[in-house]
Specification:
By secondary structure, the protein is an all-alpha fold. Helices cover about 75% and strands about 0% of the residues.
């Protein structure tokens, strides 16, 4: 975890980047202003897609990955950025579901087909 002083220095040195990240989050992350408790309730009631939660939790990581692929990523149109972030989150959602299915199948195999 970053220390508050480090974050302050980053904000002072790169105010445009911090501002753009906030703009991207506000545009792409439907859970941006939600509390953890609100998100948990939304998940429990199945009122939010798993990919939306993944995007919320991994937004910084996804943006950093995209910047590594394209150094001008932050300067793209917000719609283009959003589309790329949503696709990335949905990719993780698919991978999670595939992993869950594999785990379920392993458990069924171990249990002789009965769970």
């Amino acid at each position: 975890m970053r220390k508050p002083h480090t974050i302050q220095l980053f904000e002072q040195e790169f105010p445009e980047t911090v501002s753009r990240m906030a703009e991207i989050a506000a545009y792409s992350d439907v859970l941006f202003v939600k509390t953890t408790e609100d998100i948990t309730i939304l998940q429990t009631n199945k009122n939010v897609a798993q990919w939306q939660v993944l995007l919320h939790v991994n937004l910084s990581m996804y943006v950093n990955e995209m910047i590594e692929e394209n150094k001008d990523f932050l300067f793209l149109d917000l719609k283009v950025i959003n589309d790329k972030l949503v696709a990335r989150a949905k990719q993780d959602e698919t991978a999670m579901k595939a992993g869950a299915n594999t785990a379920d199948n392993i458990i069924k195999d171990i249990a002789g087909g009965v769970v």
